[in-house]
Amino acid sequence: MDRPNKSGYHSVRTEHSHVISQIGGQYVKTSISNHLDTDPHRFESSPNGRPPALELEGIGVSLGGRPILHDVRFGVAPGEVTGLIGSNGAGKTTIFRVVLGLLAPTSGRVLVDGRPRPRRNRSVGYVPQKVSLDPDMPLRSRDLVALGLDGHRLGISFPSRRRRELVDEMLAAVDATRFAESRVGSLSGGEQQRVLIAHALIGRPKLLLLDEPLANLDIRSEQEVVALLARIAQEHDLAVLISAHDLNPLLPVVDRVVYVADGRVASGTTEEVVTTEVLSRLYGHHVDVIRLHGRILVAAGHGPDVDEALLAQLGRAAVTTDDCPAV
Amino acid sequence: MGGWWSHVVEPGFFSSEVVRTAVVAGGVVAAISGVVGVFTVLRGQSFAGHSLGDISATGGSGAFLLGINPLFGFVGMGLIAAGCMEALGVRRERGRDVATGIVLGAALGISALLLYFDTTVHNTTGAAVTVLFGSLFAITTSVVPVVIACSVGLLAVVLVLYRPLLLSSLSDDIAAARGIPVRLMAVLFVLTMAVAVALAATAVGAVLSTALLIGPSATALRITKRPGTAMLAAALIGVVTVWVGCLLAYDSFYWPPVRHGWPVSFFIVALVLVCYVAADLGRRWWNRRVSTRYTPVAP
Hints:
The complex is a heterodimer of chains A (about 325) and B (about 300).
Chain A: H1 9-20, E1 54-63, E2 66-76, E3 81-85, H2 92-99, E4 107-112, E5 115-116, E6 124-127, H3 141-150, H4 161-173, H5 189-201, E7 207-210, H6 219-235, E8 239-244, E9 256-261, E10 264-268, H7 270-273, H8 276-283, E11 287-292, E12 295-300, H9 308-314, H10 316-323
Parallel strand pairs in A: 3-8, 3-9, 6-7, 7-8
Antiparallel strand pairs in A: 1-2, 1-4, 4-5, 9-10, 11-12
Helix pairs in contact in A: 3-4, 3-5, 4-5, 5-6
Chain B: H1 2-8, H2 17-42, H3 46-66, H4 70-88, H5 93-120, H6 127-133, H7 144-170, H8 172-177, H9 182-204, H10 209-223, H11 227-251, H12 264-290
Helix pairs in contact in B: 2-7, 2-9, 2-10, 2-11, 3-4, 3-5, 3-6, 3-9, 3-10, 4-5, 4-9, 7-9, 9-10, 10-11, 10-12, 11-12
């Protein structure tokens, strides 16, 4: 495979930050399974027998002649939480832009609810990574949620009993009733996430996309948001796709994982995908997957031929490997 | 109120044709500037608004040279500038800044040339001050219907685009994902802003037009929690500052230097500043008083 950073140096850096952010992960039972014969690009796309709410069929994207995504295929089932995991620049946001219809794929197609995605589709709820909510912005939580209902329509909205009830219901569903009347800009990161999730949910989408919802959250809000998303997926029978650079905070709730590296993906359950074999093949160089107290550490460049500079750079990860000789 | 009133309001204030024109045109312009200004601040386009003001000065000074009403120069040049800025301003924010800067420099250069011709060739010595710093009392009665028509048109545009514009101001990503044509929204808003700035430039001059566009809006944003309320408040603050400014300018005829009067634009801009500082201090005081982050929910 022709890769720009075959040495893995860049990847090592990202994986290193990965390793540092393990603290606070929760214990879950995982079994290490070997998939020596598994091709990471050819995983089954329709999980647990139900028709997927979202299906990507061999998506390829080239921007300015440069290939960004290669043959990306995976499915997201209703009622399930799927983690889209990869380091910065791996192609997660590009995948989102394709699913949202903001970027036309060079090849392949996107099916939402079994049908090709229409140009304007409101059955997809979206929480972007960065929404600049200035503390001075005159917008209460309830106003932002209401915009999720009819923000795309022309003209001004008039208050109605039904509208208010819908907004109240949605605010309650994400535990945001407490700060319904506060300016969104004055809320904490976790609280803003809740309001943005309510904004995305009020249109009753079949699929909810969240781009790095855990970035910039403290550990407690991180766990609260993750638990909320898992609950919403079940209660609303919603397909939830969450992108993240670290899988561990999502481990307690993800049903399936889509791992992205260099524009390629491997998808399946955590046990299937996050293994030394599959990820090494995906990255195109050796990657160690270490399971430790229910957390998963992914570290590149390990092995008998590891050089001293790399070890020094990895620091913490190297120590962890010594504690975990089974892998 | 009678005794106090007659001391503040000089006899003849309301019977003056010039004052009536100033009060009507200034009030309408201030109201629409407040409404458009709230969106300008929400979208973080205050600098673009200021640039449009500076650029429309080119149109105003050109209009003087051609002997037509500066209002038409302001509006025409503002629209052209807005179009150029959007055409050059690619989707990236940095690109928008560069476009604003380049067009701004070119326009002010031309403006300097035109103002030079205005003062030397045409002998209209007041042109520079009128174009750059304006005077409500210099507005001719004949343009008042045009000012009102433009303002009503802008209000209609803002009301029609209200929700998609608000959503795209919060996040272009969310808006685009919802199928809102964010690029079209951006173009329409810049054009709206160009006309609003041109109207404000007629009232307080090209350079000070931003004060009328942004000042009342920024003040309103300090004291309100909802976008609709903020627009009403900004419009109200704008109208009050312009009217009180007119009154003070009229009174200032008897202030030193006696029988010259102070420029009305000065009073308006000064009052805008006073309002902002008052609102800011008020907000801080309120925040300290409430001290918790969550304001109590109305029963």
